[in-house]
Structures are given as C-alpha cells and as structure tokens.
Amino acid sequence: MPKIGGRDVAIYDIGILAAGFVMFILSFVPWFSVEFRSEFVESSDSANGWQLGFWSSAAISLVLGVTVSTAFQVLGRTKVSSVGPVPGELPPVVAGALAVLFILIRWVDLPEGGAGVDTGAGVGLYLGLIAALALTAFTVLRLLQTGGGARPRPAAAPGGWPQGPQQPGGWPPPQAPQTPQPGGWPQTGPAQPGGWPQAQQPPQTPQPPQAPQTPQPGAWPQTGPAQPGGWPQSQQPGGWGQPPR
C-alpha cells in the first residue's frame, strides 16, 4: 500500500486526491472560447471554469469539496461516520455524480455564436469532465471496498439480548460446574435463569444395612440401628423390666 507522509493510503484515496488536484488546475484553464471576425477586426476571448456561470462553478466546488474531505481523512486517519442507514462513503459518490451532470449541462448550454462569432468548448471543459468522471469512479471504488461503512452486529439471543461475553444486567457468563473441595463449602455451579449460581451438594456415601439384634432374656434390648425417626433403641439396666416369676 502506498504511503503519504509516512501513512498508508489506499489506491482509491490517492485517485480521489489526484483527480481533485487536476480539477483545481483545470478550473483556471479556458472552458469556453469565442472568436470575433470582421473585415477589419479579429479578436478572441475565453472564460475559465469559475467565470462560465453556476453549473461549472458548482461542479468544480463539488469536486474540490470531496478532495478536501478525503485529504482530512487520510492525514488525520479519521472516518466519516454513517448517518442512520446512509454510509459515510455515499455522499462523495453523489457529489461526484452531480459534478459530472453539471459539467454536461454547462456543455450543452454553451452560448452560440452569431454572424462573425465562433464559440466552442475549451480544453478545460473536456479535461474537467474527465477529472470529474475519474473522481466519481474512485469514490465508487472506495464505497465498494469499504463495504459501504456497514459494521457487523452481534447475533441477537432468543430473548433479544446480543450474544457476547457478558450477560444482561452485568452478570458474568455461567461457568462450568466444579468439584466440591473436601472439608469446605461446595463451589458454585452454572448460573440459573434468575442469575444466581446453583450450589452443589457433596455426594453422600450410602451406609450398609445392619442386621437386627436379638433381645436378651430378662433385659431390655441393646441399642441397635437408628429407627426411622432418628432415635436409637435404648438399653435398660439388667434388672429392670423382667417378667414376674
């Protein structure tokens, strides 16, 4: 990529700057010439692009305006932002097309000479039209190369929120479940729809069933496994609860 002043400049920007510079030079070249002929006097006159009226002056102004804005973007490394659905690269294309149209209107509407007066378009008008066409072509190329200023948007989630590293409301994205540490609090698991993480409980090891104990004669049964209510069976002293003899 070519460089201007140590900065990388695209080919289409160089073309726009060159076309604008050429148009500035051609604006002072004759765009219209007239010759007066008679038996005794023969003279000629001409008018440049600024002197030929509104259409030529407007065309030159549009081309120079696009050139100046492009120079500011190149030297300042700035970019014209889009206005709603209109990309920032589209107005220069419209300005260049209008400049071409205005030059064609001026060409068709040139004054006609009468008897002894010859009129015609000057070299400035021809070359100015070519410069305006070149500027329009380079602005169209810039519009196509930059994609019209469109920027990809993140895909929307089913709830309407864009997908990204951060969830709605500022909460961090859910994390993968982690194994609880022994002897400590269990670590949190993935986030639930309400935004709160779900606590994981440590796995419980099943206890093997215990065989029931046979009660001893003349005594209360010994303490055995826990009952469904959670209370163990009590064992009474050896002399209590014996049946009468």
Description:
By secondary structure, the protein is α+β, with helices and mostly antiparallel strands. It has a domain at 3-34 and 43-149: Butyryl-CoA Dehydrogenase, subunit A, domain 3. Helix content is 33%, strand content 13%. The chain contains four helices and seven strands; from the N terminus they run E-E-H-E-E-H-H-E-H-E-E. Strands 4-3-5 form a three-stranded antiparallel sheet. It has a two-stranded antiparallel ribbon with strand order 1-2. The chain has a two-stranded antiparallel sheet with strand order 6-7. Helix 2 (54-76) runs antiparallel to helix 3. The radius of gyration is 46 Å and the shape is rod-shaped. It starts with a strand and ends in a 46-residue tail after the last strand. The model is unreliable at 149-157 (pLDDT under 50).
* Distance from first to last alpha carbon: 118 Å
Give the DSSP E fraction (strand runs of 2 or more residues). Answer: 5-15%
CATH fold field value of the domain at 3-34 and 43-149: Butyryl-CoA Dehydrogenase, subunit A, domain 3
CATH class assignment of the domain at 3-34 and 43-149: Mainly Alpha
- Helix/strand/pairing class, anyone? alpha+beta
Radius of gyration: 46 Å
Number of strands: 7
Oligomeric category: single chain
Helix content: 25-40%
